[in-house]
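Student: I would love a firmer grasp of how sequence relates to backbone shape in proteins. Thank you; the sequence and its tokens follow:
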Amino acid sequence: MENSEWEGLNGLPKLMDLLEEPVPGVGTYEDFNTIDWVREKSKDRDRHPRGKIATKSKESTWALVKGISDAFSGWLLMLLIGLMSGALAGGIDISAHWMTDLKEGVCLNGFWFNHEHCCWSSNETTFQERDKCPQWKSWAELIIGQSEGPFAYIMNYLLYVSWALLFAFLAVSLVRAFAPYACGSGIPEIKTILSGFIIRGYLGKWTLIIKTITLVLAVSSGLSLGKEGPLVHVACCCGNILCHLFTKYRKNEAKRREVLSAAAAVGVSVAFGAPIGGVLFSLEEVSYYFPLKTLWRSFFAALVAAFTLRSINPFGNSRLVLFYVEFHTPWHLLDTRLGHYPVLEVLVVTAATAVLAFPNGYTRMSTSELISELFNDCGLLDASQLCTYANGSEPKSGGNALPDRPAGAEVYSAMWQLALALLFKVLVTVVTFGMKVPSGLFIPSMAVGAIAGRLLGVAVEQLAYYHHDWVIFRGWCSPGADCITPGLYAMVGAAACLGGVTRMTVSLVVIMFELTGGLEYIVPLMAATMTSKWVADAMGREGIYEAHIRLNGYPFLEPKEEFSHKTLAMDVMRPRRGDPPLSVLTRDGMTVEDVEGLIADTTYSGFPVVVSHESQRLMGFVLRRDLIISIENARKRQDGVVSSSRIFFAEYTPPQPASSPAPLKLRGIMDLSPFTVTDHTAMDIVVDIFRKLGLRQCLVTHNGRLLGIITKKDILKHMAQIANRDPDSILFN
């Protein structure tokens, strides 16, 4: 009896075929699971078969319009991400600058003006004391009417610490109450998400709102952290939220990750004013899958964001960053337990930071201002303590650059303060990174390197002045010449330190090049960056973000890490010797009750489908989530489906007895071409397959018979064992 005859005799509705009638929820993923890249790319290909748009355009004008709009939706999305991220970055910069100055005083002309803007319009500001004007009042002047003396110093000290504690408390409280994912830098998690991992809510609207607000508060508190890393997280939140406006990005996890790769480039673009560096950062550091079209779209989005930030002009100098610098001289070849209590941890670290930072002018100022001061190329118009030399000299004709001069008392005093600031920054940054507030590592790392570079630069400058006849200076450094630029040493030191911490190379050099605006310094920057990477790699292969990923147990398969051990697929696959047999589904021998029992008794993410338990000949693979949703949906929508109903994964359903309950056909949710390897495949090849295809699992066969399964988690555990690390540290699938 044919299947259609059985249906007619029993008067039951037509057998449901999920291949023809999609079920809501099928094809989606659970939280803390990895997507199937091959499946997602197939979905996108099925959505637009080759020539479909062209065929429809011949049928109707409306179809042509829809096809064109679909093709250009990616560029429109990039435009929106650039505009939104640039606007948010401008708001963060302005707010953080104002609130940082609020710790020291307030502007009488308008409390919303920061110190610099307050004194712009004053006619009583002198060149030597350009930061002092009657319109700006310190808290001591407002409260006790004194600007000098011990009482004024103590009052300013207390208010500085109090404001810092208030800002830090608000930041950690908002993060803890509304968006726990808003803490930290966000770059390690974004790297993991771009590799295919699902973290629901990490790029959501609440995370964006709280991260934006608390980033301003955390930076303003004076903690040793930067806003540049978190700006990448903010931009990716913008990208994820705007993806929901376009169906093809909303419903496809792989396409959405292409957008997030571009958003990461936007984040660096607005953080450093470096659109090209942002694109290279996304390509080199965070992206897992980066096709050519994503490269162009990333560049477009980064450019739009940079233009948006430039139009806002947050620093009032037509620059995108506070520490933009230009050099005019050539370089030469010489050249705990507290963590269990996050609010208390933040308050204790903030109090210690504020108390220790206030007495030293170089630690009291914001880190961005400090870097700007250290990068400064001393000229005629500079009144900085670092530029106060013993005797004045005339500049070389046609330029602002001054010849090398002996350091005065103020320069030596500044060197001592910088030496203490270096020690302070190193210790405080180590403690601060990882607290439950938004915290970036770019700026603190650059500050540490810039301080060390400036100290070295001034030391070499004085050596060249007093000992210009030494062999190392002879021939290129004559008396009265401008031989050494300490600011250049600071810039190279900043790049070297950041490169050592993050292991960035090409993207870092380009970012620093865009910051300085000159091609001339690319060679020393390249040399410093490569040297710092080699030295850091000699101490440990992991950068800070890779270490953070490993500590959190995320299933990230590092593309840069080599696998050179001679193991085979049979050594890694499950089940191992002595383990229970692999849990499988059969083509047509199981009931709904059997399948639901298998689901209840196991925690696996999916099940292989075989012809029978005896043959173990592989047919396909079914995800656990799709199976649960399909059975629940069939019970609601298809009459007659009960626990004793048989489930079929075959293309054709065999005839059923008249007394049998309605069967359930689930071939539509089965992956008919799961990726397989043989049991003797070398593991280095298997690892490469997982990396390049973005697989979440791979089935192991022998002469066509199913033997076992290898998941991404199995590979990471195997690599951890080989590296003598705890394999149970890999927490997620």
